[in-house]
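Hey, I was hoping to borrow your eyes for a little while. I've been puzzling over a protein and I'd love to understand its fold better. The fold is given in discrete form, as structure tokens running alongside the sequence. I'd be grateful if you could look everything over and explain what you see. No rush at all, and the record is pasted right below.
>
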Amino acid sequence: MDNTAPCGSSAGATKRTEFPLAGGAVALVAQDDYYHSKISISYSNEPKKNADFSLLVQANDLNDLDPGHTCFSVPDAPEHIKAGTNATLQVVYQADWDASVNQTFYACADIVFVDRSDFRFKIPCFNATEPGEDNRKAAEANKAVEAESASDSAESPSNAAKMGSGAKAGTIVGSLGGASAVAVGGIFLYRRRQQKKRALRHAHMEEKARHGQYPLDKGSPQTSA
């Protein structure tokens, strides 16, 4: 189960991914809204509990994330951590997937540090999301209120025009953003839930983002507050 601490399952360390001592980033790919996320790290070869991890990133930007691809830079490794050191990155987040209330979920990635000069793997670090369910509910509520106000003041063409503009603005909340392809260290942590159609749509979003077809919305990568 993904809600088994500290890494979503009882399985031990898997094949480790090279990760730079400096200039690293974590890319989060989600199929639904998720909240109150934080990124932590353990320098233990086999972390067994949450207490084995220390906090890396817990920013305001992580409190409410929409479906799609979001990238965050992480602090450089401490001076005493050298190339060849094993570590595990942990992402903790909350979501109401498969339940009526939010639950806490976990995802981990086993890494081995390398000098930045030896880090050859280059991935794009960008932000491309679509409105989550909470965004859509807010937009729908906004439209309903404005439609009622427009009905009450139908005799005023100017007011009707203003309502139309407001409704359009409501649909833009949480629109696609981020198109920068930055060559920085990173690793993908996946949480798949929704149907195949949405997964294909996200792949299409990412492909467009890599080619700069979406306007910048948030900085890429995001930094902790």
